[in-house]
Amino acid sequence: MSENNWTRRDFIQAIGATTAGISLSSCGISGDKSVKGLTEQALAVEPVVRPQDLEKPNISVGYVPVNDCAPFAIAWKKGFFRKYGLNVQLNREASWATSRDGLIFGRLDAAPVVSGAVTNARVGAEGARRAPLCAAMVIHRHGNAMTMNKDMWNFGIRPWYEYQQKYGDGALEAFGRDFRNYFDKQPPERKIWAVVLSSAIYEYFVRYVAAAAGVDPLKEFRVIIVSPPQMLTNMRIDAMQAYMVAEPWNTRAITGNEGIGFTFAQGKEVWAGHPDRLLAVMESFIDNYPKTYRSLVKAMIEACQYCSKPENRQEVAELITGRSFTGAKPKNPGDPITKFTAPGILGNYNYGGFDGKDRTIKAADTTIFFDIPSNVAQEPGEHSTFLWRSRSIWLMTQAARWGQIKTVPKNANEVAEKGWRTDLYREIAAEMGIECPKNDYKVEPPEVFIDNKGFDPSDPVGYLNSFTIRANAPTRLFMS
């Protein structure tokens, strides 16, 4: 690994006692913020599964204060957990690391994890404790973005779609030139991009975009780990120049809100249709409590379906502003309560900027909870909670590309099958009358990626080796 590629341990040591104190404080208040009890709506629901018929009806489920906690909030409020015989204690987690580790160490029964966490835990990737994590459903697709600070704007960097409009096929080259020229003028301590966790697709996207633009992320800047609620503070104090996180923490940064940054690109512009969070459990939970697990997945699928419906999205955006969820309420009483949460949920997304120009773009695919909009490539019967095992293999190629593992595992298909339980999801969905794709693997066409480079899961090593910029790439020597 390059000396510029910090591990999670390096970062924790480097930030010192002050930030560690902040993190401990966040953990301390996390439990107090968690929702308690049942709503009147939930109490009015008549269970279709009796709690006494489940092996473990009382379970603890984590969630993190970002927009994708919406299905958890809805399952609690609307009584979907109760419908399937579950008494769920929701636990507000301080970060994606605590959400994952809560599962591994037994504090949580289920929790959302970043998309690479399941396979990285199984293969022992850098910074990941080995553990048999499993997931049978995706919580949502899209709903995240890359934020850059005001200095990068003043230097001349603009949202990705504007590069496309101005330069066409030369957009990546133009962005790469601006990006490198900016960082070349910065001291080492100001060449930092933050993400939420080492195995998050956000880390891979940050590195992917930089490398596609000709900038080596292992040599030319550092990637560090920061929990979502601390992104704004760290950018404000100039601890990093850019970050990638789930909403509403990008929207909060723009002019008219915190005024410290702008959105460079949404994750969907890097890979259209990409998975984000997975609902994870330990393998032993599925083995020991199979009925309980099926009830949990059914409750979460129904919650995702509810969040997906256009007529429900305003309600969803309002619900997650609560202190128990994102706590993202505007300070100005005259502002709408959903000022920060609505753009990512309703799709009126403002990229921001510091020139007074309105960069609000309306799109149906800003966050995808269940129904996939027609502009996103999809297979027959596909919906967003379905897991493609091929995408698990893509994540493994990125872990190998950036040196978190030595190479793509020879048993990558087996790792994908044990970790991404598409087989279980298909069974559970069938019981709910939901159609699913017939296959577990699919080829990702070139047009869905920012660099127009497709992915064939049948040849992951060839795909990995096709990238010039990667960890452990062969060094070319030229002799006269």
Structure description:
It is found in: Cell inner membrane. Pfam families: NMT1_2 (PF13379). One of its GO terms (biological process) is monoatomic ion transport. This protein has 480 residues and is an alpha/beta fold. The chain folds into two domains: 40-141 and 275-324 and 376-466, D-Maltodextrin-Binding Protein, domain 2, CATH 3.40.190; 144-273 and 333-368, D-Maltodextrin-Binding Protein, domain 2 (3-Layer(aba) Sandwich), CATH 3.40.190. It has 19 helices and 13 strands. It has helices at residues 8-33, 40-43, 70-78, 80-83, 96-104, 117-123, 150-155, 160-167, 171-184, 201-212, 231-236, 283-288, 290-308, 313-319, 342-346, 389-401, 412-419, 422-431, 460-465, and strands at 58-63, 87-92, 111-114, 133-142, 144-149, 192-195, 222-225, 242-246, 261-266, 275-282, 348-350, 360-362, 367-368. Helix 3 packs across helix 13, helix 8 (160-167) packs across helix 9 and helix 16 (389-401) crosses helix 17 (412-419). Residues 1-31 have low confidence and may be disordered.
